[in-house]
Prior knowledge:
Elements: E1 2-4, H1 9-20, H2 26-42, H3 44-55, H4 66-75, H5 78-95, E2 103-105, E3 111-119, E4 122-126, H6 135-148, E5 152-157, H7 166-175, E6 179-182, H8 185-194, E7 204-206, H9 211-220, E8 225-226, E9 234-239, H10 245-256, E10 263-268, H11 271-285, H12 291-301, E11 302-306, H13 310-320, E12 324-328, E13 344-347, H14 354-358, E14 384-392, H15 394-410, H16 414-421
Parallel strand pairs: 1-11, 4-5, 4-7, 5-6, 7-8, 9-10, 9-12, 10-11, 12-13
Antiparallel strand pairs: 2-3, 3-14
Helix pairs in contact: 1-13, 2-3, 2-8, 2-9, 4-7, 5-6, 5-7, 6-7, 8-9, 10-11, 15-16
Amino acid sequence: MKIIQNETLDQIKARIRQQTEKTTNPMIESQVAAIIQQVRELGDEALKAYSKKFDGVVIENLKVSETAIDEAFKTVDPKVIAALEQAAENISSFHQLEVQKSFEDTPRAGVLRGTKVTPLAAVGLYVPGGTAAYPSSVLMNAIPAKIAGVKNIIMVTPPQKDGLSPTVLAAAKIAGVDHIYQVGGAQAIAALAYGTASIPRVDKITGPGNAYVATAKRAVYGQVAIDMIAGPSEIGILADESANAKDVAADLLSQAEHDKKARAILITNSEKLARSVSDQVEKQLQTLPREDIARAAIEENGFIYLVDTVTEMIDLMNDVAPEHLEIQLKNAYDYVDQIQNAGSVFLGRYASEPLGDYLAGPNHILPTGGTARFSSALGVWDFQKRIQYLQYSQEALADDASNVAVLARAEGLEAHARAIESREN
């Protein structure tokens, strides 16, 4: 890995920001716009045509039957089923703590204020299907939605020549997904946003995907809500001389193997650790089954930043705002309050990032590309909305009417003022 030293904090921050600058691809945007339009006009016919064109699969029935799901469940290794069920239990117990409750108060006589928390009616979950199957993403998307009270959870995933992954279907059954459709790409996002004869329109779309899926989500935002625009996976590690170089290298590679564009960053104040980690990364790469992917990510987007102090390390990492942040410092928990920007934080040597990917309970649908500066992990709150309500008595209105009218007229909105004053008689 490239070791960056003898640069000022400002120089390093500029380098990091340049790496995460958001760009759009006009060609992809144009292709996605055409796909969305075709789905709006032709519905299921377009979905089947695109499945044949892009996935090489001829689809008769877009919806996956309950029988097919049950049969797939039976074929999955019982050890995998047990692991999925344990993960589901942990994810559920964690997300139960996020449930928001309605509230109501009466600040003074005659005034009632409140907020009603209610679940979305229908949500669409996008589960990638490209080079690997992701049953864990099914659990991470569906379980918070179920806890929120969503009544219609619809999953879409790209069709496969050899059939959908039985493990993905088993995960959907465990998580309580209501309907599954074998359709992927931008066309799946369009179907969820606008509806077709087979696929109902939803209120929100969640889940990661490739550049076409991300572009489609951006394009339909406003017609429906979306969770985020997910980019390539990334990990940031804060480590000092107490860290184990073998562990740090393994954790960096755990994200690098996802995607050639994945980011892996170590920030340390130990030159010895920096060089040991760099050596370990090269050594471990040579035995990875997905070496070509991980090596490309490390060579293009893997950096070790060497700075002087822990304070500078944390300052830099807050600028990175990583999807996953590991703190491998002495007394790691003591630094949690200093972390301003991160999707999910892993504390100490034994909280390796894959725990969060699969089993521990916190969600792995996380903000990427520095967007942890202003957004959060997927949670129950993403599947709920809030409706405010207000009630005044005649006497309470009389107390506030003059101030409302004054403010309305200060904004040049005479009808607002008159609407209040009409009730004074």
